[in-house]
Design goal:
By secondary structure, the chain is an all-alpha fold. Helices cover about 90% and strands about 0% of the residues. α1 packs across α2.
């Protein structure tokens, strides 16, 4: 029973560890791809890279930049909506403030 319990606990710990590492690993890969794409944008493909590898990497960079652009667009839309919400709240508070001054 103790052996079963320890195997169960170790399995759970492994699952938790993998759960934390996978998203972080994806971000590291995305950061690495971003670095590679920035290098290609600045310097072109390295001389040691075959044209097929360069073409593959350029396609990955195109996909990466499209994804980044979509994310930024989504963030901009979200930020714009938050701005509108805050402007409405400020407007409401100004009206309430004016009402309080009239009561005084």
């Amino acid at each position: 029973m103790k052996k079963y319990l320890s195997v169960l606990i170790l399995s759970f710990m492994l699952l938790v560890l993998v759960g934390f590492c996978l998203p972080a690993g994806r971000q590291v890969l995305a950061d690495d791809l971003g670095t590679q794409c920035d290098a290609i944008a600045s310097n072109g493909c390295s001389s040691g890279m075959s044209s097929a590898d360069c073409k593959t990497l350029l396609q990955k960079c195109d996909d990466y930049y499209a994804q980044q652009s979509a994310q930024l667009s989504q963030d901009l839309t979200k930020t714009s909506a938050q701005k509108d919400t805050l402007q409405n709240a400020i407007s409401k508070l100004k009206k309430e403030d004016t009402g309080f001054w009239k009561q005084i």
